[in-house]
Amino acid sequence: MDKFANLTWKITDFGFSTTGTSAQKPLSFGRKTRIYFSPELLLGSTYDAKSDIWSAGCILYQLSAGIPPFLNDEEVREYAWSRKPAPQVIDAKRPLARVNKMIADMLTSSADKRPDAVNVLKCIPAQSKGGEVSIEISRSDVERVKCDANLGANRFVATMDGQEDNVIVELHSVSSPISAIDCNGLRMHVKLLQSLSESPNSHIPFCLGFIHNTRDEYSLIYRAPTSTYHDDNRYDTLEAVLSNPSHPAYKALTLPIHKARVAADLAWTLYSIHKARYSHRMIGAHNVLIHSPLDPHASLMGFSVTTFQPLESHAELITASLEWRDRLYQHPDCQVEDNFKFLQKYDYYALGVIMLEMGRMQSFGLLSGAWKEELENMNPEKLQWFRIKRAEELKDSVDEVYLDVMLRCLKGEFGQTGPDDVGQCFKVAVCEQLDSLCSS
């Protein structure tokens, strides 16, 4: 925030008037300068000091994101005329909700609705004398409400000092001592989750902080999503819902629109995660939280420090999980030896498996008997083929759009021409298609 404060103070130092106007045509500057021009400057309309606020907003965005928000005149005009949402910044080191709000105000299309430099300064939070608020939580501040098997073995509902609503405690274990990750790494992890939870269309419960349990265990504390269950302390995973036909959310998910809504929630969350250049790597029905049982919505959890890593990271091998439930959702390429690169399509494949589970109204993670034994013995490529064939069998029982999206995720085919555009193609072929199905 110091960079932002210095820049806005420089604006006020110039002493520009906010009352006078000019009918001058835009000055003739090079293309590199024009990308900071306000819409009224590009149109040759009247302009005043609020045009400088727009330019400062562009610079603040570039300081945060590393690239300018608009690359040419046409992008500025399209943004101004179509009233698109303001560009958002995601930072792996800290939440940027206030910064994004400030930038959005400064990049308001209507000049008269932009703040002046003095009001921009008021948006910059002053650092408290005590410094940054700690996100390391003491175990004594958290009191367990009850143990609910429907949340999974590693989660429980609790109350926490300073929080009016319930929290969900999610326990994680690491193979190496926690000191190898260190508390600073956990702080950065929590801040990244906080930033992602505030991203548009992202469905991640807000992470309040962490508890350092032992050398090889830590817990993440999430603010519990608003629940419409009669029991306010009840939260269920998708895995638990699909295993209980008498569950109210199970009955709701038999309707195509509710399947699409849950899938859309997860797809948009994946889009936000990948846009931040991170990957989840542990997507599965056991890490999907279902709330509002009569109108189901989904939240994604299971963000382990050791698995929630940057995309295409070459730091270490992608290791195949030995757990049956995890292997159900792993792309075959994750089983290949010497694979150092995690691709977006691996997370998309897991989404396709979840969509298949909802299509069949059956949780694969809780299978038992001969069918489970048969699937466990399949090699990864055959298991992927098996999934695709089971999905194709649903053509008479699920919506055509839902079936198309599910198969695209399982096959990794979104119309992309290369790895650079797979995220944007996923947005169009999956996220927007599911939204259209929900609104149809």
Structure description:
With 440 residues, this protein is an alpha+beta fold. It has two domains: 2-122, Transferase(Phosphotransferase) domain 1 (Transferase(Phosphotransferase), domain 1), CATH 1.10.510.10; 139-439, Orthogonal Bundle (Transferase(Phosphotransferase), domain 1), CATH 1.10.510. Helices cover 42% and strands 11% of the residues. It contains 17 helices and ten strands. The protein has helices at 2-13, 31-34, 39-42, 50-65, 73-82, 97-106, 117-122, 178-197, 238-242, 248-253, 256-275, 324-327, 344-360, 369-376, 380-392, 400-411, 422-439, and strands at 142-146, 155-160, 167-173, 207-214, 217-223, 236-237, 278-279, 288-291, 297-300, 309-310.
Features:
440 residues; alpha+beta; Transferase(Phosphotransferase), domain 1; 2 domains; five-stranded antiparallel sheet; three-stranded antiparallel sheet; 10 strands; 11% strand; globular; disordered N terminus
Short description:
The chain is α+β, with helices and mostly antiparallel strands.
- Tell me the overall shape: globular
- Structural category is alpha+beta
Helix content: 40-55%
Name the CATH architecture of the largest domain.
Answer: Orthogonal Bundle
CATH-assigned homologous superfamily of the largest domain: Transferase(Phosphotransferase) domain 1
Give the count of helical stretches. Answer: 17
Mean pLDDT: 81
* Separation, N- and C-terminal Cα atoms: 43 Å
Q: Look at the structure and give the CATH class of the largest domain.
A: Mainly Alpha
N-to-C series of helices and strands: HHHHHHHEEEHEEEHHHEEEEHHHHHH
The main pleated sheet reads as: 5 strands, antiparallel
- Kindly estimate the percentage of residues that lie in beta strands according to DSSP: 5-15%
Q: Which oligomerization state do the chains in this entry correspond to?
A: single chain
For the largest beta sheet, what order do the strands appear in spatially?
Answer: 1-2-3-5-4
Report the uncertain regions: 1-29, 125-133
Q: Cα-atom Rg, whole angstroms?
A: 24 Å
Q: Could you name the CATH topology of the largest domain? A: Transferase(Phosphotransferase), domain 1
Number of strands: 10
